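Researcher: Structure for this, please.
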Amino acid sequence: MGEMPVPGNEPEQTQGETLDNVKSAGMPVLPDNKNNPIHCLTIIGQIEGHLILPPQSKTTKYEHIIPLLVAIEESPDIRGMLVVLNTMGGDVEAGLAIAEMIAGMSKPTVSIVLGGGHSIGIPLAVSTDFSFIAPSATMTVHPIRMSGLIIGAAQTFDYFNRMQERVVTFICGHSGIARDALRQMMLATGEMANDIGTILVGQDAVNCGLINAVGTLRDAIARLKELIGKNEQPG
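Model: Predicted structure, token format:
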């Protein structure tokens, strides 16, 4: 298995190599990080975990993202990371693994939700140092679901409850929303026709403390540059 190049140290890529990288990993390696010290991490479609999703599904593969995050953290040329989200959610453990990696980075990070940041996309959105949501973007807060065969026993409910608690703890620990308020949103019954949960649009996500601010790409980059400047001040 080949090693992923550290961003900033990779050889110059041809157009064909760049296109292959986009097809396989969903993003190109930035060609010159010394002149562009911000790395853009895109999380789109469905978070793919331990099971391979159908080929027609747009996915973000966690086995691509995790080593890339390590490379970004270790690269001396990258000074900050912008996380752009438009995701429907996906594998809970894979999503939490990526979120924990982002939250544990020493470099400044800013996220922006464009389109949607649903389900396990919420921990990913709040894992950065500062979070934005576009005015028209939405976030769906709902309980954990599981597909396939499950055992109808008390132990199954306990397992679901513990998994749900992991998600709730992470979200509340990295945002300003209260635990009780988040649980109420997850279990709301009057808003979604065939499901339980709550849909937050733009400012709604800010009002409840889930996201820091409503903004655009320009706002997110400006905030990230501000955090980079503060991070690099002596002392």
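Researcher: Any notable elements?
Model: DSSP finds eight helices and eight strands in the chain. The domain at 15-231 is CATH 3.90.226.10 (2-enoyl-CoA Hydratase; Chain A, domain 1).
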